[in-house]
Amino acid sequence: MPLVWVGLAILAIGVQAVATNFIFLFVAVAALVAAGLASLSLGPEVQLAAFALLALMLPVVLRRSLVRRFGGHGVPSRTDVLMGAIGEVTQAIDPIHGTGRVVVHGQDWAARSTEPLHAGIKVEVIAADGIVLIVQVRTET
Question: What's the pTM?
């Protein structure tokens, strides 16, 4: 019986090699645990219960952290490259009305700030909300 579980684990690893969702990795781990239980001469009910429990619980517990760690960062947004960049306010920023514009790297952007900022002030991009840049007064270093 351990060879059946090992065979299932190898099959799951083979499928995982072409899949990108980590689910078959968990099936392989569950099958290897069941193979270990079979090699200890535990009954098929125990093996099947352990396999089913692990195959269902491992994805719930571990998948999100594995995807976050190994899944990459996805496609960067247009504003990601602007974090920390210095720009200039071209239209006064009014935090109450949510209006204002800045030029960063030669491009015009809508901007917001927690404080009112006049045109001509140098600002630093600290975040983005979609395509609206969140800026603060540039601190000299």
Answer: 0.49
